[in-house]
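Per reviewer request, we include the raw input and output of the structure prediction for the construct analysed in the revised manuscript.
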Amino acid sequence: GDAGAQFNLGLMYGNGEGVPEDDAEAVRWLRLAADQGDAGAQFNLGFMYGNGEGVPQDDAEAVRWYRLAADQGHAGAQYELGNMYATGRGVPQHYAETARWYRPAADQGVAWAQTYLGNMYETGEGVQPSYVQAHMWHNLVASRTTGEQRESAVEARDRVAGLMIPTQITEAQRLARDW
């Protein structure tokens, strides 16, 4: 009955660690932990429903589990719930809700949430447009990632900077430092 042990056992079945890989068995153990309120188990169940792993693919059920975990502050679930609203999977497409869920994930350091939130501030999709906010989020991603994700963030930050006046750039840089 220990939720932590159930969660870990579910992960082990899902990854085939010490036991044969068995997604249906992973779901069984994760559900036991999730039903006790374990946010990690709820997030993983959302992922499994979203991808049809061990259960029939069901976006609405994925959203349900992501929301339970997201409401507890699980950054990955907040990001994935934002994705569901961005694409209209399991919920009506709604960009303000997308931003509502990306924001707490971004505040917790999820780089992809920061990237998409920066894009949203640049275009004004679901949020009040703000080049300062867009620059800040892209700058954070550029400073914390590597490879293609970093290159893309640098390109986005520099594109936005080309639309800004110097005082706006200074403010965006200050916000990024303060973050």
